[in-house]
Amino acid sequence: MSVRSLCLAILSFGDATGYEIRKESTEGRFSYFEDASFGSIYPALARLEAEGMVTVREEPQAGKPARKVYSITEAGRTEFINSLCEPQAADTFKSPFLLIALNAAQLPPGVIRRALERRKAQVQEELRLLTSCEEGQECSHPGSSWTRDYGLACMNFTLAYLEEHGDALIKIAEDAARPLPAAAE
Amino acid sequence: MSVRSLCLAILSFGDATGYEIRKESTEGRFSYFEDASFGSIYPALARLEAEGMVTVREEPQAGKPARKVYSITEAGRTEFINSLCEPQAADTFKSPFLLIALNAAQLPPGVIRRALERRKAQVQEELRLLTSCEEGQECSHPGSSWTRDYGLACMNFTLAYLEEHGDALIKIAEDAARPLPAAAE
DNA sequence: CGTGACATGTAACGCGTTACATGATTAA
DNA sequence: TTAATCATGTAACGCGTTACATGTCACG
User: Fold this and answer.
1) Confidence of residue B134 (pLDDT cuts 50, 70, 90)
2) Concatenated DSSP letters of A16-79
3) Which of A19, A156, B7, B17 has the largest count of CB atoms under 10 Å?
């Protein structure tokens, strides 16, 4: 999915500025789909406006540059919905953590421990994010709840698995670190 | 993770040709880390050779171009292990499927059904891949088993969740498709 | 007889990231 | 006072993809 579609997706849930879109795409609910940086969002927004997919309204602020609040138009909404109807790319999961796990026997136990802790912290953070959006805002939206529950279930499962089987992974590294266990008479 | 590291990672598990590396990175065990195409793999391999991280041995074949089998060197192995020791990027999950789920109420039920079936098929395929590697080859490697079991557990959970809650998602789309249910007296 | 797997490689192109440019306000 | 948050935007650069170029063999 391109940054263009990401902008349309986020704006279909409500008006936003470029700055806010970036936040949602890196930290918020939309981090599941794509994370984009300013350098791609601002040009994409400008292009979408030129094409009539969004409109802008400028809100001047003292000191800061004016907030440019974007709204999706009917044309934009139509394009977005249509794009969802045609076949999507497959889901992907990229895990530097699993690469470390795969090579556990070749790595110092400390590295494994840190990687495990880091991964757990990441999952907990995502969990926190998911539950925090439960209370606030416009989360009464039906698709939102389903998606949130799905994410919650997967994250909880992952966390439990890591908690239960993490030690086994550390043990792999520890066993390999002592290269001559048979020599221990 | 760059294509460079991917090549090193795969070669650290055994010799391979560029063609095989590409297969492993798109279909095989290493699809968790990065998927690369020929256009990036061949140049990366050439560079790695120039830097002494890998060596090549050419195996001429009748008709086909000679297989160029790459082996990792000590220097390459060291670089790879060192790269794993320093902080890695966070794991990412990108899901076009969840974007469809999020917008279930705005989409035709048929689209939701297809997306669900597609996602389930994908998970089943990954499951099949994971179990097939269980039997064959050099999977007695300890990190491999842990990683495989982790993948298996997550995929099984995901599949079960989709099977159990998929209907609820379809219902969201169906309910929204009939826009005036209150009018049904 | 055509499609797909095997097998390597280059060149053009696109997309997105990083770094830069600017600047006020607020919390530690 | 120093870092972080808010706020927009551009330009250079890197990395990877897509398409091209070439050719054999096996299977249906």
Assistant:
1) low
2) B-HHHHHHHHHTSGGGGT----HHHHHHHHHHHHHTTSEEEEEE--SSSPPEEEEEE-HHHHHH
3) B7
Nucleotides of C under 7 A from a protein CB: 6-12, 15-20, 22-25
Question: Counting every residue, how long is chain A?
Answer: 185
- Report the amino acid identity of residue A27: E
CA B166, B27, B117: angle at the middle one, nearest 5? 15
Distance CA A93, CA A96 (A): 10
Beta partners for residue B94, in sequence order: A92
Query: How many angstroms away from the CA of B76 is the closest CA of chain A?
Result: 14
- Separation between Cα atoms, residue A1 and residue B141, nearest integer Å: 36
The answer to which of A104-118, A163-177, B50-64, B158-172 has the lowest mean pLDDT is B50-64
B182 has a pLDDT exceeding 80: no
pLDDT band at A129 (very low <50, low <70, confident <90, very high): confident
Instruction: Give the pLDDT score at B183.
Output: 45
β-bridge pairing A67-72 and A54-59: antiparallel
Give the residue carrying structure tokens 């294509």.
Answer: B3
The per-residue pLDDT for range A88-121, each reduced to its tens digit, is: 999 999 999 999 999 999 999 999 999 999 999 9
CB count in 10 Å sphere of residue B26: 13
User: Taking CB atoms and an 8 Å cutoff, what residues of chain A touch B104?
Assistant: 142-143, 146
In a 10 Å sphere around its CB, with 0-12 CB exposed, 13-18 middle and 19+ buried, how is residue A36 labelled?
buried
Cα B31 off chain centre by: 3
Task: Retrieve residue A85's tokens.
Answer: 């109807």
Most confidently modeled range among A134-148, A166-180, B117-131, B146-160: B146-160
> Cα–Cα distance between A13 and A7 in angstroms, integer?
10
Sequence-distant (≥ 6) Cβ neighbours of residue B75 within 8 angstroms: B52, B53
How far does the CA of residue A185 sit from the closest CA of chain B (Å)? 24
| Two tokens, residue B15 | 């010799």
